[in-house]
Each structure stands twice: as structure tokens, then as C-alpha cells.
Amino acid sequence: MRIPCPFCGPRDLSEFAYLGDAAPVRPAETSDATAVFDYVYLRANPAGPHRERWYHASGCRLWLTVTRDTRTHEVLFAEEAAP
Amino acid sequence: MSVGPYRLPTGGAIDRAQALSFRFDGTSLTGFAGDTLASALLANGHRVVGRSFKYHRPRGVLTAGPEEPNALVELRSGARREPNTKATTAELFDGLEAASQNRWPSLRFDIGAAARLAGSAASAGFYYKTFMWPAAFWEKVYEPAIRRAAGLGRASGVEDPDTYEKAFAFCDVLVIGGGPAGLIAALTAGRSGARVILCDEDFVLGGRLNAERTEIDGQPAAIWAAAIATELEALPNVRVMRRTAVVGVYDGGTYAALERVADHLLEPPFGQPRQRFWRIVAKTAVLATGAVERPIVFGGNDKPGVMMAGAVRTYLNRFSVAPGRRVAFFANNDDAWTTAADLRAAGVDLVAVIDSRAEVADHIRAKAGNARVELSAAVADAKGGYGLTSLQIATPKGRIALDADALAVSGGWNPQLGLATHLGGKPQWSERHAAFLLPADLPAGLTVAGAANGMMTTAEALADGAAKGATAADAAGFTAAPAPLPRASDESFAVAPLWQVAASRTKAFVDFQNDVTASDLALSVREGFTSVEHLKRYTTLGMATDQGRTSNVNGLAMLAALTGRGIAETGATRARPPERPVAFGALAGLHRGKHLKPTRLTPSHRWAASEGAVFIEAGPWLRAQWYPRPGEKTWLDSVSREAAAVRSAVGICDVSTLGKIALFGRDVGAFLDRVYCNTFSTLPVGKLRYGLMLREDGFVMDDGTTARLSENEWVMSTTTANAAKVMHHLELARQVLWPQLDVRLASVTEQWAQFAIAGPNARALLERLLGDVSDEVVPYLAARIFDLGGIPARLFRVSFSGERAYEIAVPAQYGDALAHELMWAGEGLGVTPYGTEALGVLRIEKGHVAGNELNGQTTARDLGLGKMMSAKKDYIGRVMAARPALIDPDRPMLAGFRAVDPTKRPRAGAHFLKIGAPETPENDEGYLTSVAFSPALNRWIGLGFIKRGPERVGERIRAYDRMQGGDLELEICAPVFVDPEGTRVHG
Question: What ipTM does the predicted assembly reach?
Fold first, then answer.
């Protein structure tokens, strides 16, 4: 698998660290335990394109949002994770 | 010197001027450059080269390629001994040593062959049925017995002296396979200017052209192939990789390939690896892996002397070796007759051609010359004790016998498509080819050419290869001109399926390597294992090192017949990488032993070594564990002396391995407030604070101190183990969670050398170096920068030992010098270097938590640090830490423990039980995390977590450790054993 890092170009998988689903958004300043529980634990597990967080640890140290097809590992898109 | 009784007098692609001597089972033999081990053994008349896996039947060479199921040998000796090497792909070299496998005491007399007599003891599902009960019998009785009887060769048992490499390559067009289609595809793409890599696993390019007597452009096919190879190698944009098998196809145009750099040499040349594992990234690829011939399932089809017809052609034409003296053919297709003609041309006696078809065209039949021809016939049983001697032939007129010492078999050809299905495509059955052809959904960028694509004749393969080479180059952004096609013949490959001979009376093998017979398949179906994947696992069909190259299609065609389904409906098992066996060594490459994670040394490592330190691995680091002194008998003597010296005088300890992260920006304080559970934004310049970092799920992730060096510059310390993890976490928080904050991060762990100076004399020691470090200048929890002979030295007033203590940090290149300076400055003050063990003793005596307690399952509250969690701000982990289960008063909480008998040593990991309670999980009250012998208390003490610990001080409990056999009474106490009032830190 190769990831097209927006800073470094297409690079081998071994340079990246994986975190997981990019969808959950951290609830701001809330004490709503349900919202935080969902943020911490609930993850979609789609068969198909999936937006996920990858860290270019052995590269530019940028956190990326990578769109990957979970059926084929095809990387469709990679962008800076910063909103 | 004998050239071998079966070597033909002329011909072949061997170099008769270059004789090579080798040994097989201790016998000295001779072959030629250009031979494989298999061809050299056959030339020397070695028909039996091994015993089979389950029944220990004698087996000979079946094929001439990587699909070989039988001729597995141990190659080389000593540390380089390598089991399960296919003799058919092992290139002969001078001095090669090979040994047969699965025989004891010798190949000729094998005790295990007696297993044949008890045939049913090893039928399908044997493992599942026989060894179910009792469980303990498996390890003690069954497994050792099976291992003695079966198994495939022996590993060397010692470390491999060779090295292996991993490498990357990039190209526009990757061509997999150097046969006719691959060669012309590579040439077409190469002439367009595309960067081409051509991988071929053989040591000579040309594929089956090297085994043919046909001509291309009026010259022998092998000569044409050699000319193309020369042209390819002259093109600067083409890289030809011989002895390189592509073994896997991955997404994104990534291909794995194994290059056998030095397998054909006695030893790798200096500086060269034995093998190299490639990751090749290609824009497009042409798969030209050809086809593999399949056997026919009949009685005794595994007798040495029975060989694939295509292999016979290869041994005749490429290696100039006759398969026997009296050779018969058994086929269901036209192609095998070409081999019969080649055999006659080589002057070998062709005794008969037996074809299962009723009709064969006259021009095909003419290839047999005057030899006997039997149509609508089949070999029912092959006979012979230690190799083929005669055949029983079922004909419409009845059963007839025929003497023959070799039988060439052809059941048709299977296009080699495994690589095309690695990403999930399903091969499609073709009635015309009686074989599976390429899947509809090929991996992106991959096309298939030549025989792999069902183009079975040389002319078809060349045309298809040229077209696919051009397409691949075009798709990679080049413009390929159509190359003029060479003239080649269109041999007939007409085939009528024949999988199994019904008239067979003796054991008929489907999978030779795993000894799976026709009756095993029938048994499997009777017992209900009727899907291909079930059949495979129940009978082990196709699960051997040859991955069923010669057995899979026969097996599933027979399954289709047994179940009354069509072959297309039955389907094929899924092919997975690697396409060829790959040694772990090649996958590991240079990441072996200590090179997996290079050992890191602190800047003052040499100083510690000169002080006699005993080192221990701490994550990737080597840290001084203790410093033995003359007269000390055990580690405990040294550790206790060091800890006592810190309490009474002064000690120095290298803490450079702690993670260090520099933080810059206007919003660092606000940022730290969110990543630590306690508050940092209020920290004044020149001070530091202990911080606790939680995960978002509310458990503690890491701890450490963070100092504010100036308004916008901070430095954080992390634990040694979590340095990288915390860095990733902070980068995520900075970039993704709060990108609006002005914060920049840099890991500076390796930029600073840092030492703890602890003990009542710490101040006096430092004043010799830095001048005034009194409480007025460096109060408790101060962070100051000093000038140390022109070097900026950071001084932090922190204590992990409970004594007056400082940490001093200097740029890493001065670390070693500073260690010597500290020792000099401590002269007369009782200065003592101390290691990680004494560090542990001192912190346990003070009840400070460390890695053992920050184990990912504990909360701030469990650690007795609940008060650090700020109620005035949001931070990572805040909400989840308040979950009912995490604030349950019954949760195990930090407490101190001391053995009731002070001489007894408890062990970390022991679980707590109420005295008298049975040892069941329900009665578990917690566990002991850290244990040390306290010189200050002269007894063993520990830290651990126990239900309602702080409320139970004084209670006695039982520390039960089934793993290490520990069972001790302990008394619960407060976790601070020394100086609970905390006065010494100011002393």
C-alpha cells in the first residue's frame, strides 16, 4: 500500500502509523457522557471507501485523512487531517 | 569422469566443457554448467530422489520447474542446510551437497514405508479424527510420533550465516515471466522508452522456448530468446532480473519479488546477500507466467519414472537428458505428441503413445513414427517396486501389459494465474482449454499475456505478448510502436479432459506432496466436505509447499464429478501470496536480531561502562542497571549501597532516555491544559510542574514534568517507554483537535543529555559547577538556565527519590563530559553513580508511580492522584474518567505493602486474596505491581493496587502468585515508606 502524502508524494506504507476512523469529532467542552462515549468507542466499519487517520511518522509528521477502500486497500485520496 | 548414463551425446543448453562435481546422499556425481540438480540427478540415473510425506513411497522427479511436488531435497550442510528445496529449480554449482528427505535409515530402505501397509491410518481427515482426545496426548504422544514419521526435511537448527536484503524498485511496466510472451512484451514496452523491469525466476531467459525444438524467425527458439535477452539488456531503460520470482500482487501497483542472488553459489560473494526481497512499484504490469502441465490420476502415478510430458521435453532438449531407456506416453492432448517426436529425434526408444481420445489427427499421429499407438486407452496402473518397470493399459480390447521404465504424462495445461487472483478475482472455467482462465476483475494496471492468457501456441503467445506490452506502455504514458511479429508455428494443443482413470486398481495420487489419493477425495465427499475450500482443508489437497500447482485442478474436477456439479460451479480455491515459498530470512531482510530495533546508547554510555555499569534494555535503550563494586556478591548488594548513598550523601543517575518534547508558541499553556488533566497555563516562567496525561477513555497514558523556560518556550518530559506515543498523541491534538492553537512541537530526546543529582549533598556538588543553587536561586520546582563553561545547562529542581534533588541537562555532545564533571565535583561528598534498580528502590520507598503502575488499566484516582484532575477546564479523558465503573469505590487503589516476615521477598504480579479465601478469580482483590528491598527499612516492600486500599492500612492479606509459586502474608500500609512528611526534599 502506498499513500500519496500531500507534502512528501507517494510513500510506502511502512512510513505511516495508523489510528483509525476519521469520522468521530471530539465533542467540545461537554459533560454529555453519551456523546463522548460515542466519540471514543463507536466506529463505522464499512466495506468500501473509508476515511481514516494516518500519521506520517517517518516523514513530515503530518496527520492525514486517507480515503481507503477497505475491500482492496486502494487509496483513493489523502489530505491534511487539519480541519 | 562419467557424464552420466542418461546424458545424451549431443545437444542441450548445458556447457559440456564445464563439468561440476556435486554430492547426493554422500555419493560424488558430475553434472554440467546449465544443469539443475534435478537434471544432473536424472543424467546420473538417480530416479528416486526422496520419500513421500505420509506413506514414505519412493518418489522421483515429476516436473522441470517450480511446480515440482516430489523432488524436495536438503541443500548444503551445516548452518546453511536448507530443507524442502526443489531439485528442479536448484541451479547446479560445483561443490553442491544435497540429501534426500523423509527416509530413515536410507533412501532405499525406509522403515517408515511400513506405514503404507497401514494405509487407512492416514486417510483423509486423519488428523481430525484420530488425535481428538485426550488433549494431553497431543503434545506427548501424537505430535512427536508424527514428526518422526513425517515432516519435510530438517532445518539447520543453527543461525543462518548469510544475510538477506529488502529493496525497492520502481518502473513504468513490470513484465512477469521471461518466456515468449514476456520477452516480446518487455521488448515492445522497452522500445517505447518506458522504464521496464522484466522478472524471470529461471537463470536463463526464454521460458519454455528453451525446451522446444521449434523455430522462431528461422532459428532455434532458444537462440531467438537469447538474442532478445541481449537486446533487452542493451536498453538503458530496461532492467532484466533473472532468478527473480514475483510472489505477490498488492494494491497500488505494488508487487513482491524474491531475487535468489546467491542460491546458485557455494557461498554468497563478499558483501552480497543470499536473497533479496523486492517491493516493485509499477504503473502497469504484464503477467506472462505461462502454463503448468497437469498429471492424470491413475494407479501408481507416483512411481519414479512417471514424469510430466513437458518435463520430458525440457530434460531432452534443454538438459540433454533421457528420461529412461524405454519411454511410453500417456496423454489426452496433441501437445504431448510433440514431445514423443522430440524423444524419437533424440534417439530414445519410444515404446508407445497411449491417448484417451478416440481420434487423433493423422499429422499428430505421425509424430509417433512406428511406435505403438493405443487410442481410447488409458494407463490404469503403473508397476514397479522402486521405480517404474511396466504399465497396465486399459484399452477397449481389454487390459494389456507393457514394459517401460519411463512414462510421460500429460493431462493438459493450466494457465498460471495465481498472481492475477491475489486481489480477489475468480478464475473462469474454459471448456475449450479444459482449464481455468483469467478472472474478469483483474488487479488495476495488470494485463495477462501468452499461455497464462490461454494463448497456448508460440505464435499466439508472441502476438499476445507484443499487444499487451504495447498496451501496458501506452497506459503508462508512452507510445509503443507495434513490433513486427516473428514467424513462429501454431502447434495444435487440442485437448479432451481426462482427470482420472476409472480402471485403476492401485493407489492413485492427486496431490503428490501431501499424499492425497483419489480415494481420500471420495471419502471427503462421502463425509460431507463437498465445497472446494472444505475439501482442501479436510484432505490437505493443495496445501503443501508446491501449493497444488499440479494437483488443484485435477482435485476439483474430480470433486465436481463426485458431486455431480460442473467444474465452473464447483469453483477453485483462492490463491494467496506468496506464489512461491519465501524464507522468513528474506522477509526480515536486515531487520534481524538487534537490527530489528537498533540499540540506542545515551551520550554518557562510555562513562557508565568505565564505571563498571551492568546495562539493561529499557525500550530501545541500554541503561545502567547498577554499578557493582569490589566485594559485592549480588546485584542486591550494589543496588542497596547505591540507594543508601542517595539517602546519606549524593548519587548521580543518567536520565537521558526520558522523552523530551520542546513546545513553542503563544498557546502552549492552553494546549497543555487540554492534554494534561491538571492545569499548566498558570505556570510561571522558570518553574516546572508534574503532569498526568490521560487517554480519551479516562485511563492514564503517561506522566512527567513540563517546565516553562520562557514565555513561549516549554519543555516536556515523558516516560522512556512512551516517548514516541506521546509525540504522536500531541501531534494529533495539535493538528487535528485544536489546530487554532499556536503550538509547535519538536522531539528533542536525543538533543539533551540529562542527569539526576539526588541526596543531601546534591546542592554542594552542584555549587562546585554552577555557583549558587541555594533555595533562593533554585527553589523547589524551579527551572533555570545556567552557563556551564559557555554551555547552556538547564537545571530542574525535581525529586523522584524524595531527597533534595536536581536534574541537569546539557546538549547531548557534552553528556559524557558532564558525567565526568559531576563525579569530579562530588569528590569528598560521597558521590555515587546509581542505576535504574536503585532509582526504582528510591521511588518505591517514596510511593511514586512508574511504568508498572501506569499500565494502561489504571486511572488517576486508582493511583491516588485523583485530586490532580482539574474541575475547572476541559481536557482529554475528563468525561470518560467519571464513568461509574472508574469511580467505583471498590476499584483497586494504590497502597503500600510490606512482607510480614521482613526476610521474605514478595513478587510483582502476585494477586491479593483475603486471608483464608479460596484462590478463585471472584476473590481477587488486586495485584502487586512493584517490589524492592528497602535499605532504609531493611525489609522487602512493594506497591500495588487493592480494593479500597487507602481504607485498609494495617490489614493483613495474602499475596498469591501461582505463576512463580509465591504465597506470602503482607501488611497493607501507606504507599510512602520513607519521610512521609516530605521534609527531606528541602533538606
Answer: 0.96
